[in-house]
Amino acid sequence: MIISFSFVRELMKRFEEDEIFRLSAELAYFFLLSLFPFLIFLLTFLSYLPVPHEDVLSFLREYAPKETVDIIETNVKQIVTNQNGKWLSFGIIAAIWAASNGMAAIIRALNRAYDVQESRSFFIARGMSILLTFAMIFVIMVALVLPVFGRMIGSFIFSTFGFSHMFLNVWNAIRWIVSFVILLLVFVALYLFAPNKRLRVRDVMAGAMFATVGWMVVSLVFSYYVNNFSNYTAMYGSLGGIIALMIWFYLSGMMIVLGGEMNAIFCCQREGRMRIR
Question: Measured between alpha carbons, how far is 220 from 61 in angstroms, rounded to an integer?
C-alpha cells in the first residue's frame, strides 16, 4: 500500500465526517466500563495457569502511566481478595457481557468507517463482540504465559551452556518482539472480523500495523509525559489517576479508529469507488 497525498487528504477528511474525536471519546468511555470486568474474567482464568496476577499489571506498567496502573492495581487486588470464587459462577457471565461492551463500540466505529450498516441481528453482533473478547483474552493469556516459560528456558540455557549475562539480557528483550506480534494479531483479528464486511487478512494488515505501532508509541510517550512532566493529581486531586486513564483510553481508541479508517480508504481504492456522504 502506498501512502499518497490523496490518501492523507482523505484521512483528514474522514476525521470530520466520521467524528473520530467523538468516536475515540465513546470508546474511552466503554473501555473504562469494560476494564475491570475484563480483568476479573482474565484473572479468574489465569488462576489456573502458572502466571501470577502481578504479570498482568507489569504488562500494563510498561505502557500505562504510573497513576493509572496504581488505580488499576488497587482496585484489582481489592476485587480479587473479596470475590472468594464467586466469579466462577454467574458472575463470569456478567463480567464477560460487560467486557464485550467495549468490543461492541469498536464494531460500530469500524462499520462507520466502511460505510456499512449493521445488518447482523443483535444476538449475532453481540455474539461476535463476546467471541472477539474471548479471543483477546486468549491472546493476552498466551502473551503472559510465554514470558514465564521464556524466562525458565533462558535461565536453563544460561546455566547449562554458561553464556554471558548479555545473552540473558537479549533473551529478556525478546519480550518486546513478542508483545508487538501479539498486539498485531489482536488488531488483525479485530479489523478482520469486527466490521460487517467480508475482508481478507491482507486487506487489514496495513491498518493493523499502523494501530500496533501507533498504540505502542502513543502509550509509551504519554506514559513518559505523565510520569515525568504532568501531575494530574495536583489539578484533579484523587481523580488524577482516573483522568490519566481516560486520556490513555482516548488515545488508544483513536489509534484503533484510525487503523480502521486506513483499511477502509485502501478498500475504497481497491474497489475503485469514491466515498459518498
Answer: 10
Q: Quickly tell me which residue has 476525521 as its cell.
A: 15
Instruction: Return the percent helix, strand and coil in the chain, to nearest 5.
Output: 85, 0, 15
Q: pLDDT tens digit string along 63-88?
A: 677 777 777 777 766 665 665 555 55
- State the DSSP code for 65: -
Distance in angstroms (rounded) separating the CA atoms of residues 3 and 74 = 44
First to last CA, the chain: 24
User: DSSP class of residue 23?
Assistant: H
In the block, residue with C-alpha cell 461492541: 104
Q: Which residues contact 255 (CB under 8 A, 6 or more apart)?
A: 210, 211, 214, 215, 218
Q: What is the pTM of this model?
A: 0.75
Closest CA to 229 of 66, 99, 87: 66
